[in-house]
Design goal:
The protein is α+β, with helices and mostly antiparallel strands and 428 residues long. Helices cover 24% and strands 26% of the residues. The protein folds into two domains: 269 residues, Naphthalene 1,2-dioxygenase Alpha Subunit, Chain A, domain 1 (Alpha-Beta Complex), CATH 3.90.380; 102 residues, Rieske Iron-sulfur Protein, CATH 2.102.10.10. It contains eleven helices and 23 strands. The structure holds FE2/S2 (inorganic) cluster (FES) and fe (ii) ion (FE2). The site of fe (ii) ion (FE2) has 4 residues, from loops.
Length: 428
């Protein structure tokens, strides 16, 4: 790679293809982005009781998310301090301790070292200090049940999120404006031959790619009685919101009508959402009319806050391979019929045989592949749509806003921050 290539020109909306295909830059990302940023780990509803755990990832590395005896959520590197073995090899479960199968060390739910094999005979005399050999712990923060972690001991989640906290608050509260949400079933996981940033950037607010979804929009798989794939037909306006912290979103501003009034395929579901909406307006006031439709929290956590309500994390595996983890959410206290209604819709939308994500993957995979060649990688990508249309709104504090909603502010926000993390800010 030519070190003098300008990787990100935020003002001009130009991004070098090197950032998607260069092995050298990918190796730097492992440390400079994924070793430092706040990363989405999982949702509290996955570990309701003390002793519950799930495996997750921070970049390429496996981590364990547990609920300790104190009720606190902990995130720890899944690698034994003795000689590196994975101490947990189950995707999810319940346990008292984590037992390393290699030489038998064991760890408590909070990661502290519980037992060292042959401690009395081989370690005690030398003054072995258990407290120095617990699992490596990450710093943890929780917003509306979403669990985040960083390896940066100085990481401050509030300043990391900036104004984008509003997006998480509105997306992962129950539809009634105050209840909790829960993950439906388990996390759906699969791998694709794409660079992770192409995925994260698409969900950050690429509205221009709607042409890719024309077939599914014609078929009509949404939860309401209309065509299309979502329930957003009552949205008065969509804007793009970009944050200096690197996050971005497409946010809908509703008319003051129930956005879910057409769920008439299920009477119980329709009534549930009508009740929720009335309550949401009482609890949230004007905020009830703000709907983060889709967005990305830098670097790789993407979400739909409307319907379908999901989180997609684009975990890097290599420069041209990404492991996709998708979770679907429902209101924890909703009736069973409502949960079933939404689960079936989610499966139609982006389940293993769904009709939407498949369109996107074709684009991401071919784009990655077609950007690798000697000739191709010399020419940058274009993110110039909407430059000059930026403004602000007091409905989204902390955001720069593109009111036409069709620009590429999302890409400029994300890659501007990426360049800062990578130590390339001088080139922005
Ligand atoms: S690697 Fe875990 S006990 Fe040895
Ligand atoms: Fe899409």
């Amino acid at each position: 790679m030519n070190a003098r290539v300008k990787l990100v020109d935020r003002q001009a909306g130009i991004v070098s293809r090197e950032i998607y295909v260069s092995e050298e830059l990918y190796q730097k990302e492992r440390e400079r982005v994924f070793g430092k940023a706040w990363l989405y780990i999982g949702h509290e509803s996955q570990i309701p009781d003390s002793g519950d755990f799930i495996l997750s990832r921070m970049g390429e590395e496996s981590v364990i998310m547990t609920r300790a005896r104190t009720g606190e959520v902990q995130v720890m590197l899944n690698s034994c301090r003795h000689r590196g073995m994975r101490v947990c090899r189950y995707d999810e479960g319940h346990t008292e301790k984590f037992y390393c199968p290699y030489h038998g060390w064991s760890y408590n739910l909070d990661g502290s070292l519980a037992h060292v094999t042959e401690y009395e005979r081989e370690y005690k005399e030398q003054g072995f200090d258990h407290s120095q050999w617990g699992l490596i712990k990450a710093k943890v923060a929780v917003v509306r049940g979403t669990v985040w972690a960083t390896w940066d001991p100085d990481g401050d989640f509030d300043s990391y999120l900036g104004g984008a906290r509003q997006l998480l608050e509105l997306s992962f509260v129950g539809w009634d404006g105050e209840g909790a949400v829960e993950v439906v079933g388990s996390t759906q996981k699969w791998q694709i031959p794409s660079n992770w940033k192409i995925v994260a950037e698409n969900f950050a607010g690429d509205m221009l790619h709607v042409v890719s979804h024309r077939s599914v929009d014609i078929v009509g798989i949404g939860p309401n009685t209309e065509s299309g794939r979502r329930d957003a037909s009552h949205t008065a306006q969509y804007v793009q919101a970009g944050y200096a912290e690197g996050h971005a979103s497409v946010v809908g501003f509703y008319n003051d009508t129930d956005p879910r009034r057409d769920y008439s395929a299920s009477k119980i579901t329709a009534e549930y959402f009508q009740d929720c909406y009335a309550k949401r307006k009482r609890v949230l006031g004007d905020q009830a009319l703000i709907s983060p439709a889709v967005g990305t929290i830098f670097p790789n956590m993407s979400f739909h806050g409307n319907q379908p309500r999901t989180i997609l994390v684009a975990h890097p595996v290599s420069v041209d391979k990404t492991e996709m983890w998708r979770q679907y959410f429902v209101d924890r206290d909703a009736p069973r019929e409502v949960k079933d209604f939404l689960r079936k819709y989610y499966l139609r939308y982006s389940g293993p045989a769904g009709l939407t994500e498949q369109d996107d993957m074709e684009n991401w995979n071919y784009a990655t592949n077609a950007s690798k060649g000697f000739m191709a990688r010399q020419f940058p990508y274009n993110y110039a749509a909407g430059i000059g249309n930026e403004t602000t709104t007091n409905r989204l504090p902390g955001a720069t806003v593109e009111v036409n909603g069709q620009g590429e502010l999302h890409g400029r926000s994300m890659y501007g921050k990426w360049a800062e993390f990578m130590g390339e800010a001088d080139h922005v």
